[in-house]
Write the structure tokens for this entry.
Amino acid sequence: MISSSVEPHIFVEKIITDALNDNASDIFFLPENSIYCVRVRINGIQKNVSEIPHEYGEMCVSHLKSLAGLLTYRTKIAQDGIIRNIINKNGIAKFANSELRISTFPTMCGERIAIRILQEADSEQIIEDLNFQAHIAEKIERIIKKTDGLTILTGPTGCGKTTTIYAMIRELLKNSHDPASIITIEDPIECAVKGISQTSVSKNDNEWNYAKALRAALRQNVKTLIIGEMRDKEIVKVAL
């Protein structure tokens, strides 16, 4: 347990800084009855890094939500946000070479927070940077060169789906694929890629959700369409 005399924002900054230095992919603030357990995932393996008093953990969660532009007073719904280019009071950028994807989830013991870390080094990766076995990399290269068809990437959280998808997009651009013919539809946008068109949708927005964005994209002379999730029948039907 750490002392609650340490300001929550200082504790949060240290947790994030240590995670970045350790090349962690995820940080979790997990509420229990009397404590918050703070865990990180490094190379696919989770480990505990701290246990903090529950009330102190709630203050840390509130600070993270504030940094991500989320509604701090909404604690009974799930929210998603991004932390990037945070400038402190001295004008110094914190976490300048990384993007932190924040996801909240209400539980019976309090709000759970999951933080996905995307570092700058990850933002330029192509297929050869992902250390696939040679025969798998060759199959992916063949898929990328096809002029039609559907490719679906599946797997558990943290297995590398998003990293692989963006590496495939960069591979297309590297091979002179027209950026104007690539559209991504995501909830929310995971990583900005120069030149292509990316749109952010929401499952709670009837005006601009996956299905409506998909239908609209088909009128944009798109050759490569990336769909962040196929989470229900309507989306799958439109995609097919």
The CA atoms of residues 47 and 180 lie 43 Å apart. The chain has six helices and eleven strands. The chain has a mean pLDDT of 87. The helical segments are 8-21, 54-67, 134-145, 161-174, 210-217, 233-239.
